[in-house]
Design goal:
The structure holds two protein chains of two kinds. By secondary structure, chain A is an alpha/beta fold. Chain A has helices at 16-36, 79-93, 135-148, 169-172, 174-187, 194-207, 218-229, 244-263, 265-276, 284-295, 310-338, and strands at 41-47, 52-57, 62-68, 99-106, 125-129, 157-162, 213-217. By secondary structure, chain B is α/β, with parallel strands linked by helices. Chain B has two domains: 2-164 and 361-478, P-loop containing nucleotide triphosphate hydrolases (Rossmann fold), CATH 3.40.50.300; 204-325, Helix Hairpins (Orthogonal Bundle). Chain B is globular, with a radius of gyration of 27 Å. The chains are: A alpha/beta, B alpha/beta. The interface between A and B is medium-sized, with 25 and 24 residues.
Chain lengths: 340, 486
C-alpha cells in the first residue's frame, strides 16, 4: 500500500501453517477480485506482510482490499479484531489519491460476529457495498471508525465474504473454480480446463510466496488462455472440411512443423498480410476457406517436408494456414472481450 | 576451421541478458589461462567441443546439458557458422539459412557441413586429431578414446584420407565388435546367474521398490515430450528475436497517410508483441506442467531414498537376482560364440591394417612428419623407430611419462598436418595442459616453437596455468572466479 508510514503493526500468525493459509486465502482473493474486475483492471499486487490486495485499473485508479482469513469457519473469536485491523489499514489507504474502492474480504461466514446478520453472508460469494449491509453491520463499522477517528468514505467500502474452507482443494477452491468456469465460458473458452487455468494463476502467486509480494498483470492471466485456445486441434472448426482421421494422422506426425510455422512471426505476418488483401468483400468463413484452398501453394517454400507426399504436404500447409488465421481471430476476440 | 566465439546461456531464463557469458577467440594463438587450477579451463575447452556437437562428458559441478551454447566458427570456404545447441538438438545458421539437427544421429552430417569433409572415416577421427583432453588426450597415441566415448583410430583416419575406405571390411569389423560387446555382457549375466544358483538363493518376489520405479519411469516418459516442446518453443522465440533484430537493424521508417513517420521496430511491427506474448504463455504453461511432474518425481525419489536407507539395499539386490534368475542363457554356447567372434575380429583388424599399410604413401608421409617433430623434441630412434609402420605401434609401455607426452604431441600435430595436406582443412589445435607430465620447460618451449613455425595457419587454443608461452601475438583469456556465474 502507498502510505506505509500510517501502518500500525498487524497481529501476525504465530505458526507457519496459519500464515501459509492466510497467504493462500489472500492470493485466491486477489484472483477473485481480478476476475470480478477483469475488463477495467490492469494488474493486481499482493503484499503478504500487510495482507493487502491492490488492483490497479487501466485508468490509474486503485481498488485496495484487506484479506483476512479464519482457519475454522465456526470460530468467530477473531472476526471483530480482523474487521478492526482491516478498517485501520483501509482508512489509511483511503487517503491515497487514486484509491476509489475499499474492500474488506474474509472467509468468515460471520464477519461482524453477529448471528442475526449471518444469513446475509451465507451464499458462496457475497459482495455487499456498505449501503446494502444490514443496519447493525453498518453501525459496527461506523462505531469502529468513530472510536478510532477513521474518516472512511463508506460509499467506497464493500464487504466481501468468500467461502474458503475445507481440507480438500475441490472444496476450498469451489468459489474460485466456479468463477473461473463462468469467466472462461463468457470468453467462449470453455475448452480450456478450469482446473489447469486456476492452478496456473494460483502458482503465479506461489512462485513468489517466499518473498510475500507478487504482482500479476492481466496480460499474464489472460495469455495462457489464449495460448491454450491457439493449440491446433482436430476438433477445430476451421478443419471441419477435412476427414478427421486424416487430420489426426497429420497432427500426430507434423504437429511440431505446424506449430513452428504458426508461431514464426515472419510466416504469420506474411499469411495475415496476404489474407488482408484477399477478397475482402467475402464473408469471413468463405473467405478463409477459399484463401486456404487457393493460396496454400505460395507458402511451399516455408516448409521443409522431407519425404512427405504431395497430399500430405498440401494438408500440412493448409492446416498451418488455417491455424494462423484461427489464432489471429482468437487473439483479437479474447483481447477485445477483456479489453487487453 | 577456427572458433570465433562461444556464448553460454543459462537454460532457465534465456530472455534476460545477464545470464549469459561470451568467450571470444582470435584466429591465432589463444591461451586460456588461470593462475590456479580448478577454475574451469578444462570445462571451457570441453564446452567448446560440446557446442560443436560432440558427446562430451561433464566436468565436476557443470552439466553441459543445463546450458544453451552458441558457438560461432569459420568453417569451409571461410563461411561463418553459428551453432546453437540445446541438449540433443543443434541448430546451424549459415548464410542466413537455418537447419536443425538431432544429436548424436546427425553428428557426422554437422561436421561434414562445417569442415567440408565428406569422408565419414576422416570426419569421425577429427576430434582425436585436433583436441588433446587433459585426462585421456595425453595418453592417446594412435587408437583409443580421445574423450568420453569418442574414439580415435589412425587406421580409420588414414583409410579415409587415402580414399581407401574399405566399407565392407570396416563394416564387418564394426559389426563383429558390436556383437562381441553384447555377447560379453551376456556371458557376465550367465556367470552371475550361475553364482546365484550355486549359493542356492531363492527367486524373490517383486519388491515395493518396483512400484516406485515404474511410477518414476512413467513420469520421465511424460516429462520428455514437454521438455522437447519447451526446446522447440525456445527455438522459435530465438528465430523471432533474430528476425525482429534483423528488420530493426535497417532502421527503416514508414509514413502514415497523415504524414507521421514511424520507426520499424518490435513495438511497431504489427502482431509481433502478440506472437511474443503467445510464446511466453506457452512456455509458462509447459513450465508449470513440468513443475508438477518434477514435484512428483522429487517426492518419489525422496521415498526411494528413505526406503533404501532402511532395508531396500537388500531388496533391490534381491529384485535384481530375481530378474536374472528368470533369464535363460546358455553360458557354454555364449563362450563358443565369443571365441569365434574374437578370432574373426583379430583377422579383420589385421586385414584392415594391412589394407591401410599396403602401397599407401600416406604412411611414409605421416611417419616422416612424426619423426621430424620427434627429433626436434629430442627423441631419437630409440623411441621413434625408423620403420614406417611404427606409426601403428602398440608398444606404449616402453615410453615413460615425459617421453610419452612428447611422442603424443608429435603424433597429434602430425595428424593435423596430414589432414591439412590431404583435405585442405586447417583444423584448430586445442591442447589442455601441455606443460604437464614432468616435461621440461625447454621441451614445452620447443613444442610451442613448432606450433609457431609450422602451424601459423591454424588456430591454437591452449589451456594452461602458464601464460608465458613464447608466441608473437597471443590472446590471453584469463579465468577468474567461477567460469559460469549462473
Amino acid at each position: 500500500m502507498g502510505t506505509r508510514e500510517m501502518d500500525v503493526p498487524m497481529p501476525k500468525s504465530s505458526n507457519a501453517t496459519a500464515s501459509a493459509f492466510g497467504w493462500e486465502f489472500q492470493s485466491n482473493a486477489a484472483i477473485m477480485l481480478m476476475l470480478k474486475n477483469i475488463e477495467s483492471a490492469s494488474k493486481v499486487k499482493v503484499e503478504g506482510e500487510t495482507e493487502d490486495v491492490e488492483i490497479t485499473f487501466s485508468n490509474g485508479k486503485i481498488l485496495m482490499a484487506q484479506a483476512k482469513s479464519v482457519e475454522k469457519p465456526d470460530d468467530f473469536s477473531h472476526v471483530k479484531r480482523n474487521l478492526e485491523a482491516s478498517l485501520r489499514t483501509l482508512n489509511a489507504a483511503s487517503k491515497i489519491t487514486d484509491v476509489e474502492q475499499l474492500v474488506f474480504v474474509t472467509n468468515s461466514p460471520n464477519p461482524f460476529n453477529n448471528i442475526r446478520t449471518m444469513h446475509k453472508f451465507s451464499s458462496p460469494l457475497n459482495m455487499a457495498p456498505f449501503s446494502e449491509l444490514p443496519t447493525s453491520c453498518q453501525k459496527s463499522i461506523t462505531d469502529i471508525c468513530s472510536k478510532n477517528g477513521y474518516s472512511i468514505d463508506t460509499s467506497m467500502l464493500t464487504v466481501c465474504v468468500m467461502q474458503f474452507h475445507g481440507e480438500s482443494e475441490d472444496e476450498r477452491y469451489k468459489v474460485l473454480q466456479s468463477l473461473t468456469m463462468e469467466f472462461l465460458n463468457d470468453l467462449g473458452a470453455s475448452k480450456v480446463s478450469t482446473g489447469q487455468m486456476l492452478s496456473l494463476w494460483q502458482n503465479s502467486f506461489r512462485v513468489n510466496a517466499s518473498q510475500r509480494t507478487s504482482t500479476i498483470t492481466k496480460e499474464s492471466m489472460i495469455w495462457p488462455i489464449i495460448a491454450i485456445l491457439c493449440e491446433v486441434r482436430e476438433t477445430d472448426a476451421e478443419l471441419e472440411d477435412y476427414d478427421p482421421s486424416d487430420v489426426r494422422e497429420i497432427l500426430q506426425k507434423y504437429r511440431a512443423v505446424i506449430n513452428n510455422n504458426s508461431e514464426r512471426f515472419e510466416f504469420v505476418s506474411k499469411v495475415l498480410s496476404d489474407f488482408n488483401d484477399f477478397l475482402p468483400a467475402l464473408k469471413s468463413k468463405e473467405r478463409m476457406s477459399r484463401f486456404v484452398s487457393e493460396r496454400w501453394e505460395q507458402y511451399k517454400s516455408d516448409f521443409d517436408l522431407k519425404g512427405a507426399d504431395a497430399i500430405t504436404e498440401e494438408m500440412v500447409i493448409q492446416i498451418t494456414i488455417s491455424n494462423v488465421l484461427k489464432n489471429r481471430r482468437v487473439i483479437a476476440g479474447i483481447k477485445g472481450k477483456v479489453k487487453l | 576451421m577456427r572458433i570465433v566465439s562461444l556464448q553460454v546461456n543459462s537454460m532457465q531464463q534465456t530472455f534476460l541478458g545477464d545470464n549469459q557469458k561470451i568467450f571470444t577467440f582470435t584466429p591465432g594463438v589463444n591461451i586460456v589461462f588461470s593462475k590456479e587450477n580448478s577454475v574451469g579451463k578444462t570445462t571451457l575447452l570441453r564446452m567448446l567441443m560440446y557446442a560443436l556437437g560432440y558427446p562430451i562428458p561433464n566436468t565436476r559441478g557443470i552439466r553441459f546439458s543445463d546450458y544453451e551454447t552458441i558457438l560461432t566458427v569459420i568453417g569451409v570456404a571461410e563461411s561463418e557458422f553459428v551453432l546453437t545447441r540445446n541438449r540433443d538438438y543443434i541448430e546451424i545458421t549459415c548464410d542466413g539459412t537455418e537447419k536443425g539437427y538431432s544429436l548424436p544421429t546427425e553428428q557426422n552430417e554437422i561436421h561434414t557441413l562445417i569442415f567440408g569433409i565428406e569422408n565419414s572415416e576422416v570426419v569421425e577421427n577429427l576430434l582425436g586429431a585436433f583436441y588433446v583432453d587433459q585426462e585421456k588426450g595425453w595418453t592417446l597415441l594412435n587408437r583409443g578414446k580421445a574423450i568420453g566415448n569418442i574414439r580415435f583410430s589412425l587406421e580409420s583416419l588414414l583409410r579415409g584420407l587415402s580414399e581407401k575406405s574399405n566399407d565392407e571390411l570396416s563394416q564387418r569389423l564394426a559389426t563383429v565388435k558390436r556383437e562381441l560387446r553384447k555377447y560379453r555382457h551376456m556371458l557376465d549375466v550367465a556367470k552371475y546367474k550361475a553364482e546365484i544358483n550355486k549359493l542356492g538363493e531363492a527367486v524373490y518376489s517383486d519388491s515395493p521398490a518396483d512400484e516406485i520405479d515404474t511410477a518414476l519411469e512413467v513420469l520421465y516418459c511424460e516429462r520428455k515430450p514437454l521438455e522437447e516442446e519447451l526446446c522447440r518453443i525456445k527455438s522459435v522465440v530465438r528465430k523471432n528475436n533474430s528476425f525482429e533484430k534483423y528488420i530493426t537493424s535497417f532502421r527503416l521508417r514508414v509514413k502514415t497517410p497523415d504524414g507521421t513517420e514511424i520507426p520499424v521496430n518490435k513495438d511497431t511491427l504489427v502482431g509481433y508483441a502478440d506472437t511474443t506474448l503467445l510464446l511466453v504463455a506457452k512456455q509458462k504453461i509447459i513450465c508449470e506442467q513440468l513443475a508438477v511432474i518434477d514435484r512428483k518425481i522429487h517426492q518419489l525419489r525422496a521415498k526411494q531414498d528413505r526406503n533404501s536407507m532402511l532395508f531396500n539395499v537388500k531388496s533391490s539386490l534381491e529384485q535384481f537376482d530375481s530378474e536374472i534368475s528368470k533369464m535363460d542363457i546358455d553360458a557354454l554356447a555364449t563362450q563358443r560364440i565369443i571365441a569365434k567372434l574374437e578370432k574373426e575380429r583379430k583377422t579383420l583388424e589385421e586385414q584392415v591394417i594391412t589394407s591401410v599399410k599396403q602401397n599407401n604413401p600416406l604412411v611414409a608421409e605421416l611417419h616422416s612428419l612424426i619423426s621430424r617433430y620427434a627429433t626436434r623434441l629430442g627423441l631419437d630412434e630409440k623411441y621413434v623407430s625408423v620403420r614406417n609402420d611404427y606409426i601403428f605401434t602398440n608398444d606404449l609401455k616402453s615410453l615413460s611419462g615425459a617421453i610419452f607426452h612428447k611422442v603424443v604431441f608429435a603424433f597429434k600435430i602430425s595428424y593435423v598436418a596430414i589432414i591439412r595436406n590431404h583435405t585442405g582443412v586447417c583444423l584448430p589445435i586445442i591442447l589442455d595442459s601441455p606443460s604437464g607430465r614432468e616435461v621440461s620447460e625447454e621441451n614445452v618451449n620447443e613444442m610451442m616453437a613448432i606450433l609457431a613455425e609450422d602451424y601459423t595457419e591454424h588456430q591454437i587454443i591452449i589451456a594452461s596455468i602458464y601464460n608465458s608461452y613464447d608466441f608473437a601475438d597471443k590472446n590471453i583469456i584469463e579465468l577468474q572466479g567461477r567460469l559460469l556465474p549462473f
